[in-house]
Amino acid sequence: MSLRRSSVSRSVSTISGRAEWKITPLGSLSGKTIGIAGFGAIGRAVVERVKPFGVNIRVLRRSAWPYVLPGIQPVDSIEELVEVSDHLVLALPATTKTARLINADVLARAKTSLHLINVARGRIVDQNALLQALDEGRIAGATLDVTDPEPPLEGDPIYSHPKVVLTPHVSWTGGENAKRLADKTLVNLDAYAHGVALADVFDRNLEY
In sequence order, what E strands does the chain have? Predict the structure, then answer.
C-alpha cells in the first residue's frame, strides 16, 4: 500500500515541501448555470452528466421544443444563453449559420465568470475575439478541444494562454470508440441492404 500511495502522490501533487502545504478553495458546479448550445446526441449526453451536480441547465436548439423536459429551460438565442451561463458548452454542427456564432458582440454580453467549452468545431468561435475577451478579463476562461485553424499556427498565443486549456481534438476518443463506429457501420450496411432508413444521414439543407 505504501508504494501505491507514494506513486499516486507523485503523479498528482505539485507540492515540494511543508511550506507549500495549504488549503486552496476550489469551485463547485452546485448552483451554477450550465448553458448548452446544441441539443443533439452530445448536448443530451452533457445534460445527463451535469444534472446530478445541482446545476441550472439552459439549452439552445435549432428547432422548436416539441415537449417540456424536466430540469431544462430552453432559451431563444445565443445572446440569451451567454448572458446567463457560468459554463457554456458548444455542441453545435459547423454550418454557414453557426460560423463565428461566438463573436465579439456575443462575448460582450457574457458574465465575467463565463467558462467557454468548445467540443464542436473551431470555426463556431471567433478565436481572436475570444482571446481579446480573455485578455481583458471579460470572461474567465476557455477549454478548447477544437480551434480555427486546426491545429493553430506555430506561435499562436492560444498555445500558452494562461486562461486556455487546449486539447488536440480528442474529446471524442475513448476505449470503445472503434467498436461503436464498427457497430454503427454494420447497422447502416444492414439497413441499406434491406432498403430501410439509415441512421445519421447527412442533410444537405441543414449542412449536417
Answer: 33-37, 56-60, 72-74, 87-90, 115-118, 141-144, 164-166
Q: Do 138 and 108 contact (CB within 8 A), yes or no? A: yes
Residue 107 near residue 130 (C-beta atoms within 8 A): yes
Is the Cα dihedral 45, 51, 55, 59 positive or negative?
positive
Q: What distances in angstroms separate CA 95 from CA 34, 75, 137, 198, one per listed residue? A: 23, 20, 29, 22
Where in the sequence numbering do the catalytic residues fall?
121, 150, 169
Q: How confident is the model at residue 48 (pLDDT cuts 50, 70, 90)?
A: very high
Distance (Å, whole) CA 41 – CA 199? 13
pLDDT for res 14: 64
CA distance 113 to 122: 22
- Cα radius of gyration rounded to whole Å, the chain: 20
Distance in angstroms (rounded) separating the CA atoms of residues 135 and 104: 13
Cα(103)–Cα(26) distance, integer angstroms: 29
Rounded Cα distance, 165 and 154, in Å? 17
9 membership: H or E segment, kind and range: helix 2-12
Question: Can you name the residues that pair with 141 across neighbouring β-strands?
Answer: 115
- Give the H or E element holding residue 189: helix 177-193
Task: Note whether 208 and 95 are within 8 A (CB).
Answer: yes
pLDDT at 8: 32
Cell 459547423 belongs to residue: 94
